[in-house]
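PROTEIN DESIGN WORKSHEET
SECTION A - STRUCTURE
LENGTH: 90
TOKENS:
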């Protein structure tokens, strides 16, 4: 499912226009991104939790040349599914 299809599903389920559904989805995504940028987590009970974790710097290997390269540390977004979501897909 892509963003356009998700907007259509939201509009149908909430009985709102596609334009309003897209605004709501965009607002939700911005709010989640801003919260994660601050280092906080977003918990949607039953659905799951978005969080940020730090990936340490490490040594890697260039697959073309075989040369060793240094991969810098960085923050990565994580998602852990909640119980109701896990039950729904199993």
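SECTION B - SEQUENCE
RESIDUE ASSIGNMENT:
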């Amino acid at each position: 499912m892509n963003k356009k299809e998700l907007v259509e599903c939201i509009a149908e389920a909430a009985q709102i226009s596609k334009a309003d559904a897209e605004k709501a989805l965009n607002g939700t995504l911005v709010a989640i991104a801003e919260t994660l940028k601050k280092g906080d987590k977003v918990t949607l009970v039953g659905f799951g939790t978005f969080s940020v974790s730090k990936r340490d710097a490490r040594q890697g290997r260039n697959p073309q040349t075989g040369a060793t390269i240094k991969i810098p540390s960085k923050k990565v977004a994580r998602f852990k599914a909640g119980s109701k979501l896990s039950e729904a897909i199993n």
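SECTION C - NOTES
The two ends are 19 Å apart (CA to CA).
The chain has one domain: 3-89.
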